[in-house]
Structures are given as structure tokens and as C-alpha cells.
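pinned: reference chain
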Amino acid sequence: MVGATNKQKTQSVRNDFNEIPSATISPQWRPLIWFGVITTVFILLEMMVPLGSSIKLGADEDFELSKTLLYIKGFNFYSQVWNDEPPLYPYLLAKALQCFSYSILSARLVTLAFSLALLAGLYWLLFYIRNLRTAVFASILLIAAPGFLELASSCMVEIPCIAPAVLAFAFLISCKRYVFPWAEICAGILFGLAQQMKVIAVIYLPLVVLLLWLKHRLQWRQMIISTVLLGIATLGTFVGLNLITGCSLSLQIQQAWVSHFSGVKSFEYGSPSDRVFDWHLLIKNWDATLPALLGCGILIWKIRLRSTAMFLPAWLILSFAIVSTHKPWWNSYYLHNVVPLCACAAVGFDAALIWGYKRKLRGVFTSFAVLTVGIWIGARAYLQVVAMNHAPQLDTSVLLAEINRYKPYTQYFFTLESVYTFHSGIPLPPELADISLKRLWSGDMTNAKMAAELERIKPGIILVANSSQELPYQELLQNEYGLVFQDDDHQLYALRTIIHLANP
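pinned: its C-alpha cells
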């Protein structure tokens, strides 16, 4: 992406600053210096987060960690462990834990690396589509967006899914046409990587076609060739990565289809229609929402120019049309909206800044920038870090110590709070490793099946919430297990035979 000629870079930066006076930094180095500043700020914020501690970050971090533990223990996805997403992300987590150390820090650094890739992709995409200022604005807005720092710090698959796609967009925009189609092949590889992370990455394929059309304009033959080459590279990468993980591709497609596209067969735990997009997030993220409306308006007004910048409003519209209307909707899905939202907002900020400088309103816009960026956006990023620092520590809890006391006598550990299985190192029963709402709605797992599987396996310890609600396996607990620990939130049960072994 950064491999454009010095002449191109100089011309791009010269066009960037033809409206506003700039500093004396060499134009060739200015984009790299700003990118270095942005990544440094992001890394400093992440260093303030306790990445190596046993706090739970993100709603689905426990699902990914428990599946990774089972993979390390030798269980196969799909045939033994139910999994409705591609296997690449837990495979990468497992390799990180095996190559470095079995610690939460090793796992979270995988997501952190993808977060840096996402920032790089967005930065250079905006730099080549518009200018340096929009690249800087978009990156700052994304870092401070609601929930971004938590997703960047947790073992969740949303950022690893979207980062390769954004890098692919940036690669297609920045590369010139060569005799050999390197840009299309590399972008296809990145898209194959994105789709091996999460099924939702398929929504970005129409954007690739649009981007190639805008890039080649009326050269339909070249556009078709580029699209076919990119599609072949995407499919080849998807299949190749699946072979590397050693998982069955047919079972993967089958379980993903059942989970995402089959009708609701069980209403024991509600239905997908209960989970809808939270429009309050746009109000909470007003500092990006309002300028994004301005940026989209400006770009759509100039639609007749068929500029590659038209890709940005199309991206935003597509993300809201598909992701925000999809049911069920989860908070982590907002990332798919917020990345194009920040890109369009950066265009709006840049247009407002140029308008102000032309009318000699430098003081007004400087004050607005200080209030918005320096106070509101900075405070929101800082508050995200503070909230993560105050999350409960699991490794110092009495509950985890009590779980570890029964570990030598326990093969399986069942709980719906599966983050405890990773930190204790005791795997879940493979068939019950992922009891997500999507699996319950599809009918693949029911209360009756859950109770029957627990009766068959009889895991050594079972952790449940401390509540008066009757459990599907209540009779099993009463007949075979004894209560060994209880606090305000949890009850820990162990098989009576294991209790005697642990307490001779």
C-alpha cells in the first residue's frame, strides 16, 4: 500500500495541503510520521489496559477461549466441537498459546495485531482516496469509537474479520495497474483470510466489485478480468486456510448454514427478533455521526465525477442496510458500521476545516477541534480504559481457587461462563462447548439435549449461577453432585466421588 512512487506521494500530499498552510516537514515523510504518531497513541492506550490479567473483555471472549482450549486438547471443530464460524481465529489463538505461553496475554496479542492492521488499512485507504487529513481524522475517530478499544483488547473475532477486508480495499486503491495483477491477487488473499475468520465478511464482496468499477471506470474488460482474478484468489485462500486448520469444509458450511440461515425451531430462550440494532449508539457516537452525514452528502453530490471516493458512502450504506437490519444483532456488530462511519466523518471534518480556513475562521475551528478531539474523544477513550481496568479479576477470586482444587480429579468442567474453563485449564464437554443463543434457536441444542449429555458425561465439576431458577439438569445435580462453594453470584458443584478424593 505504501509502495507508491515518491512522485505520487509528493503530488498527493501537495494536493492535500493546497488549501491549508502546512509545516516544513518533508511531504514524502509526513504520512509515515502521522501514521507512526497514531499507532503510538493506540499502543500507549493498550498498554494502559491489563491485557495480561484474567478479566473478561468482550461479550464473546469466553466462547473463543473455551473453543481454543478444546482445540489444544486435541478435539476437532465441527465433528466433535460445535462451531458456527470458520476455524481460523481459534486456530491462530491455539498456535499463539502453544508457541509462546499458555496465557491470556498471548491470545489477546493476536487480536491486537489485527487491530493495528485495521488502523493501517483505514489510514492508507483514506490517504489514497482523499488526503492526509482525512486519514488522520478517521484513525482518531475509530480509536475513540464506542467499544473499539475493548474489542481491540479481547479475544473476539470481529476485528480479525474486518481488518483484512479493509487492508484489501486499501491495497486495491493504492496499487497501480501492472502487467501482472498483483493488486487483485493480494486483495483476494486478504479477502479469503477475512472470510476464514467470520462468515459476515462475505458482505464486503459487492464493495470490491464497486471499487474495481470506480478504479477502471469504463474499461469493462479490465474490470471483469480483475474481478475474476480476485475471486479465484479469494476462493483459493479460503480453501487453503481451511486445509491448514485440518477441519472439514463440508461440516463447516453445514453448521454455519444451520446457525445463520435456518429458521427458528426453539423458543426456549427467546428468538432472534428480540435482538435489534441499538440506534442509541449513533447518538452516543455523535462526533462521528454528524460529520459523516456531511461527508456522505458532499460525496454523493459529486457522484457524476465517478471518483473512487464514492466507495465510502456506498460502504456506509451497505453496512447499515445489512448489518443493522440483521437479527439477531449484537453490540460487537457495531464495528462493521463504525469503520465506514469514521471514514465518512473524516471527509466531513476535512470539508468543514477547508471551509473555515477559506473564510478565515481559524480560531473557531481550532477551538472546535480542541473541544472535540482533545476533550470529548480523548475522555471517551480514557473512560473505556478505566472501565476495563476495573473489571473483576478472575485469577485472584476464591471461586477459581476452589475450581483448581478439584482440577487433578476432573476431566471436564461444565459452565455457561466458559471463561473459567480457559483460566483453569479444564475443558468443557466437547458437545456442550458452545451453547450460544444461535445454537439454541436453531434447535441443534435444547434443554433436554443438554441434560441428556450431562447425564452421559457427568463432568467432574459444574458451575451455575446462584439463583432460584430451576435448571434443565437440576435432578442430576441433586442426585450425583454436592455443593462445594457458593458466593453471591455462583454455586459450584462437584461429583460426590470427586469430593471424597479432594477431601480424603
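why pinned: The longest strand covers residues 481-486. The beta strands are 413-415, 461-465, 481-486, 490-495.
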